[in-house]
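Protein Record: Sequence and Backbone Structure Tokens
======================================================
Tokens: labelled as protein backbone structure tokens, with as many entries as the chain has residues.
Question of interest: how does this chain fold, as expressed in backbone structure tokens?

___
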Amino acid sequence: MDADEQQEPRYPGRTLDLESLKALAHPLRVKIVDVLSTYGPATASTLAERLGESSGATSYHLRQLERHGFVREVEGRGVGRERWWERVPGGLNLNVTELDDSPATRAASKLVSRQWKQNRDQVLDDFVERGAEELPETWLGASTLSTMNLRLTEEQLSAVVEAWERFVVEQLDPYRGQDLPGSRPVQVHFNAFPVMDGVETPPAENAVPDATGGPSREAGS
């Protein structure tokens, strides 16, 4: 890639600056963003129940995430003091090479990346443990857990990543934001499999499908 190409994020979306990275760098905040990305809008109380936290804690962290543009209130939904929250659409790109090299920045980027990984591992573990017993064969047949071991140069690895990113834009982007009857949350790593939690739960109204990325990858919108 030339210098001009390197200036742009590989995926479209929001590139985290130092301030927003530090605002996100709390395990519960990363979990909240992930849950809203995967399952759609929720209240502080339903988030607290899903994550095993108090509603006071989820409410506080939602307000902090709102301040930094990660979540927003769903207008026109909710009764009385009840407030519904959703992910702000768009990807999250964490490029550590563009941030300062201070210990605080490194610690924040590691925390966010580690929590993203733990969240991905959890949904994959749930699929492996429960999928065969709880999913129809048609869903199992549509899923894949795929790994290929290669020896590549830096240039070849970069070419593979660029090809994957073109695939994301061409083949996956058209599905973003949809919520069709019969659909359910799906994560694509590439592993691609249905999320097990909430198997019998109907799609959330106005859900914004999403997935979270790793150290220098975007969390897709």
Observations:
- The chain has a mean pLDDT of 81.
